[in-house]
Give the backbone structure.
Amino acid sequence: MKVKFNTAALQEALVLVTSIVPSRTPKPILQCIRITAQDDVVKLCGTDLEVGITCRVSQVEIEQPGDIVVPADKVGSIIRETIDEVVVFEASEAAVHIKGADSHFTIYGHDAGQFPAVAGFEAEADFEMSLAKLQEGIEQCVFAAARESTRYALNGILWEVNGKKLTLVATDGRRLAKSIVNLGTSAKGKLPEGRVIVPAKMMSLLDRVGGEADAMVGVRFVDNQVALMCADVVISSNLVEGNFPKYEDIIPSDYTKKLVLNTDAVLSAVRRAALLATEDSKGVKLKLGANELTFSSRAPETGDAQVDMAVEYSDAPMEIGFNPQFLMDVLRAIKADDFELHLGDADRPGLIKSGNNFVYIVMPVNL
Amino acid sequence: MSEPRYILHIDMDAFYASVEQLDDPGLKGKAVIVGGSPAKRGVVSAASYEARKFGVHSAMPMSQAVRLCPDGIVLPVRMKRYVELSNKIHEIFSRYTDQIEPISLDEAFLDVAGSTQLFGSAEQIGRRIKHEIKEELGLTASVGIAPNKFLAKLASDLEKPDGFVIITEDNKKRILDVLPISRIWGIGRVTEQALKAIGINTIGQLKNTAPEHLKDSLGNQTGGILRLAHGIDDREVESIHVAKSISSEETFAVDIDDKDVLLGVLLGQVQEVAQRLRKGKFEAKTITLKLRYGDFKTVTRSSTFSKATNTTETLWRQARAVFLKWHKKSAGPLRLLGFGASGLITEGAGQKELFVNPEEEKQKRLDQASDKIKNRYGNDAVKRGG
């Protein structure tokens, strides 16, 4: 193989592909990326066996096609540090040479045949949507997914497709975020059982894909895998097995207490009130009175904090406690200036709505 | 010389009766008597100050109370409501210190020595607590402040109701000396009569009597009572949060190697600890197994739950898993086996869950039922099937 790369294009692809390379793994080859030069494009591939990513780089000159597997961190740092606009990759029998105007690196590669297969995107998409809208939808719920739950389904994000709507739901069992993304094309009805669970990791990876403002994402389901294609990038992933909880039943619909609040103001109030929340309870108390909302917290051995806010509210007074992190997460994800807060009793979840497409529910903390 | 202590004794004024007057403002200023019905040989649980003027006091048979105060309004005890308000009062205390020793629903000791830097002097803290109870709950409390528990309790009683009395090292002699001896803890009616018979009526007189003359009336309590008479009391405020862990361990007469026997012992310990957790209304975040080999080498193995628990089944499942993991790697004859639960939080406190876990709910009900039976018929009344 001998390929001339535009350094900037290569680096962009490398940043994305190396981001899923596992830092610790019993299989050393997973810490490598595969570079394949064929016809007039070069493909960069990385995988951790659960999620795979393929990036096409077309700003290249292929003098001789080929297929190499090289350590991701070394290639990544060499290209990051290089001062040349063009770098040359040349593979000999057992080594890869990376050459700039004044530099020559030799790194030992692995056998390309040993690299696990990474799914591509060979056929037509099942449906398409705008990348920006999908990214917004993901951003609004990915934070609510569990990190390392033994209920594996909670470590993923639920996708439900209904006509021209994609519903994304994530929950860690204590709060739940649901956001709706409008599809560009109707789904061709290939979603297994109408709902699948996609690993949260794949979703956050998608958030890193850069693209034009009007870039579209194609989605395709094959067996127990999902593949997303956006311009030159294909991300594929195994679906998460298991049952996602029946979330429809727990979104309250009988609440009468409602407030319209300013997103930034509440975020600031929660952050400040949380400064003296205790490590144990981690709670911030919201106290609602006539046209007044008070945020407070207390650390028995340190002191207490109180932030007052004037609001429009005339319903019955009430008090409810929340983990401040669960409020800050959602307030950071809401892009609109205002949001709605709906409340029931102190032991029922708080309900937050932004526009018609976003709902968040969060269980209280008993203070 | 030890650090000065600042103990608050806070005593709600005619608590049950005041709560009734609070909830039904029509009762304000009227003689309210809370307790069992006179027809059923009930007794007075509490009487408002208006009723006390007629000589009604708590623990008096209700029939007698009604005779003394025929216009008194007799109301049944609404314990749930009193507990609710008591919890709110407790919450006010906890704003200033976590050193709280509840004596009953309407009375508690607070040690505020550690809080004065933050909230001002003990007097300021006492005034704030009294004020907040009045402002937020509409109830009055009497507050006593002193360097120890005995004097603090004495102080709260001196100007009841709505009292606020501070006893210091400087004024304690003056206050104590004129009080009747019955004010001292440990001097009951019989002792009081015996002392009066030898001409001792006040604490001052008691102090000035040679101890050998008191031996006949006070017996081996003489030293303790004289210390109280001098206003000395070293007892600490025992906050209920002292419990940081609950554990059970057993040292064996001979080292035990048999896995099943050890598991049997462990199960017994888990059941005991779980029951104590539930009794104290705690949930534990972490469990720890303590394993001591024949050569006295001791190891511990811990595991932490994502959500605190006190169900026997959950604790046992985890304890068993930890034990089996240890057994697989480092089994050996044991001299001692112990099981402990730590990271205790109040039951039901903290983050609530969105989805009810039906299995866990079932286990909780099972535990409740089994605890009930054990409380009534003893620990051997119910056993696990396997």
Remarks:
- Residues 191 and 218 of chain B are 7 Å apart (CA to CA).
